[in-house]
Structures are given as C-alpha cells and as structure tokens.
Design goal:
The chain has helices spanning 19-36, 49-60, 94-107, 119-122, 129-134, 172-180, 199-210, 240-252, 274-283, 298-308, 326-337, 368-381, 398-404, and strands at 2-4, 10-14, 40-43, 63-68, 73-79, 86-89, 110-114, 137-141, 147-152, 187-190, 215-217, 221-224, 257-261, 287-290, 311-314, 341-344, 348-351, 362-363, 383-385, 409-411. The protein has 414 residues and is α+β, with helices and mostly antiparallel strands. The model has no long low-confidence stretch (mean pLDDT 93). α6 (172-180) runs parallel beside α7 (199-210). It is built from 13 helices and 20 strands. The radius of gyration is 22 Å and the shape is globular. The longest helix is centred in the N-terminal third of the chain and has 18 residues, at 19-36.
Length: 414
C-alpha cells in the first residue's frame, strides 16, 4: 500500500516515450531486417509491460531483436523462420495481438495466441473476420477464450487485403494490415469515417514514412506500394497520454510548477489535445467534451472536472472495454467520495464540481489510468492506494518521477 500526501510539485519531468510509437517502431525495426537484411535500430523506446509483450512476440516469430538498456536502443539484427509451432503470449496488450496477427500469418501457416483476463472477450478480433474469410484462414477459440488458434486452409494462397473491413471497433486492425501491405502487391485498404480511434492510423503512417514506405492516403482509403522497409535510426517521442497527469497537476494547484519536457508539438498523437481540453474545462462551466478519440484521457479528465468545473463528457462507452471497466471504476470512486455525477448510457457522463472531503478509504485500482486519476486527486487531499503494480503496463517509472517533483509518498508495509 502507498500513502500519498498533499504536495506542491515543482521541477522538470521528461515524459516517457510513446507506447503507441514504440509498438509500431518495434515492428518496423523487425521488418527492416526481414525485407532488406539490414541491421536496424531505434532509440528511447518505452519498455513497459505492453511493449515488452510485442518485443517477445517478435522474437517468437523468429526475429533477433533486443533492447540494450545501456544504449536505450532496440536493434534487430537477424531473422530465422522457426519450424515448431508458434505460440505468442500477448498478456493484456490488445495492440500486440491486433498488430501482429496479419504479420504472423504472412510468415507462418499456423499461429496460436494466448491472452490474460479475457482479452479476447473484452476487446475481440472481430475486425479481422473479413480478412480471415478472404484469405481462407480458420480461427478457433478454446472454451474459456484464453487461446486463439489461426491456420490457413490454403497454404499456397497469397494474402490479400479485403475490399471492405467490417466491425472496425478499433483502428488497430488497419495498423496490423498496413504493416504487411508493403510486402504485398500495391494493395489498397478502405475504411469508414466512423472508424474508432482513426487518428492512430496517422501514427502508423508516420512510422511507415520513417521506414521509407511509399503510400497514398485519401479520405477513406490508403494505397500502399510494394516496397522494402528502411527504418531511420529515430528516437521515440514522448507520450501525451502519460503527460496528461502532469498537465492536470499543473492546473489544479496554482503553486505547482512542473516543466514538461520531451513532447513534440506537431505530434500525430491524438492525445496532444490534452492542453486544449484542460483549458476548456477550466474556462467554461458545463462545457461538453467529446473523448471518442482520446478515450485514455477519460479517467484523469473526469477527476480534473470534479475538482475544477462541471463538465459533460460524450462518447465514453469504450471506457467499459479497456483494461478494466474504467467508467464503472470511476463511478465507484465518485460514490465513495460523494462526487456528484450523472450517467445516461450511450449519451453522456456529467461530472459536477464537488466539495471533496478527505477520505480514509484505501482505494483498490487494477488499471493504470484509474491510478493516474487517484494520484491527481491525492496531490490535493491525500489518500491511499492498495496496489500500484498496474503502472507497469504503461509507465513503470511514474512514482519515482513524482517523488523527484516532491510529491510526498510513503510505502506502507502491511
């Protein structure tokens, strides 16, 4: 258990590198060697639980790819196709699962995937069903949906991109297909304007551009031309979703003075909106904020609104299918703290500015984004969290970084 005390924070914080970019650069690094035989390297990745699963998955596929802690760099210097069965463990990383399914089937005829905590049921792979159908790929789950087996019914068939993609609950499916398209024959992928988290496709295209991949993007389709990967030795930019906590901390206490470093102003990350969203909450009572493209910012913005200004949030339903039901988790916390809110399913979640009393409750959080929201609250009121191991998923250094900013905490031995 960790106790947090009200604190005035000051100092410099170097924001950890982007998880979204790290996942993608890992794959581009591997494919540079795969398509050219050239050793590839990139710098300053975010090594956390999720990206580590992607790194290990690429090794399982046969890539000689490793992270050097001293150089803070990832290098891929080999590939050898394996003869034995391929079994990839994804943990709770939907990105690992969805990004690698097409690539694994490009290389192998049969692949198994396993996940934790019912990831297949919570997040699904339904966006690939048309890809499976068009390529004669069979998919089979075991009884408790902890194991997925994929195998080609026609091993001689070359992979093709479906003319239409159905059930696109995430842009991650497009990203997975985009990674194999340079190795196919000048194929085009179509998608709807209604695709969820569409901005993340731009991150993938940015990584492809850094890898010298030629493509043409139009309003509802992308053509990728057959080409080889040549990843530049890039450095991964800072993660705006991880920076959100620090931006909020700077704005709930006028005495806080955190200088936020390592963010790219013209980033493709959709969560770069965090500054404008904070300003909107501060400056206009009863403002309406659409978080459809910034779903990971939901919990910390809900807490910020409860402290600063009444705000209505829309397009919040996807919070239910993240690592936890984040919407329910936040409502549970608000109930404990007597923070007033109004939730109309499939319409809105309204958070009222509330008078918050010090709470002696020991909060239990199983989700890193919920932990961020609690840390924001506790910087003013203090509080306790039973377990913060969930921070390993995206930001293992968070507590150490906060201590450097003079956030007073103590680890209690139970």
């Amino acid at each position: 258990m960790i106790t947090f005390y009200p604190s005035t924070l000051e100092g410099n914080i170097t924001i950890p590198s982007s998880k979204s970019y790290t996942h993608r650069f890992l794959i581009a690094c591997a494919l540079t060697f795969y398509t050219t035989g050239t050793i590839s390297v990139f710098y300053h990745p975010l090594i956390c639980e999720d990206t580590f699963y992607t790194l290990i998955a690429l090794r399982t596929l046969g890539f000689d790819i490793e992270y050097d802690n001293k150089k803070d760099a990832v290098t891929c210097k080999g590939f050898k196709k394996k003869e034995q069965n391929i079994h990839i463990s994804c943990g709770e990383s939907a990105s690992t699962l969805r990004f690698l399914i097409p690539l694994s089937l490009y290389i192998y005829d049969k692949v198994e995937y396993s996940c934790k905590n019912q990831l297949f049921l919570k997040r699904g792979i339904n966006g690939y069903y048309s890809f499976f159908k068009d390529n004669n790929i069979n998919y089979l789950f075991n009884k408790d949906y902890s194991l997925l087996t994929l195998y080609k019914l026609d091993k001689e068939q070359q992979l093709i991109i479906p003319s239409t993609l159905d059930n696109l609950t995430s842009s991650q499916y497009i990203t997975g297909l985009l990674f194999i398209m340079p190795m196919l024959n000048n194929q085009k992928i179509y998608f709807s304007d209604k695709i969820v988290s569409k901005s993340y496709v731009d991150i993938t295209l940015d990584v492809l551009s850094s890898s010298k991949i030629k493509f043409e993007k139009n309003q509802n389709n992308i053509t990728v031309y057959q080409s080889k990967y040549y990843l530049d030795p890039v450095s991964v930019e800072g993660d705006y979703s991880l920076a959100a906590l620090y931006f909020c901390l700077n704005n709930i206490n006028k005495d806080n003075n955190i200088k936020i470093l390592n963010l790219k102003e013209d980033s493709f990350q959709p969560d770069r909106r965090i500054v404008s969203l904070i300003n909107q909450i501060k400056e206009k009572e009863n403002s309406i904020i659409d978080i459809d493209d910034n779903i990971d910012l939901g919990p910390v913005l809900f807490m910020f609104a409860a402290i600063i200004n009444t705000t209505t949030f829309i397009n919040i339903e996807r919070l239910k299918i993240k690592e936890s039901n984040r919407l329910q988790e936040m409502m549970n916390i608000f109930n404990t703290l007597d923070i007033e809110y109004e939730y109309i399913p499939n319409k809105y979640f309204k958070v009222y500015k509330s008078i918050i009393q010090k709470c002696d409750e020991v909060f239990i959080s199983t989700d890193h984004r919920i932990t961020h929201a609690l840390i924001l609250l506790f910087s003013i009121y203090g509080g306790k969290i039973k377990d913060i191991s969930n921070l390993e998923k995206s930001c293992p250094s968070l507590i150490f970084d906060l201590i450097k900013l003079k956030y007073h905490t103590i680890k209690n031995i139970e």
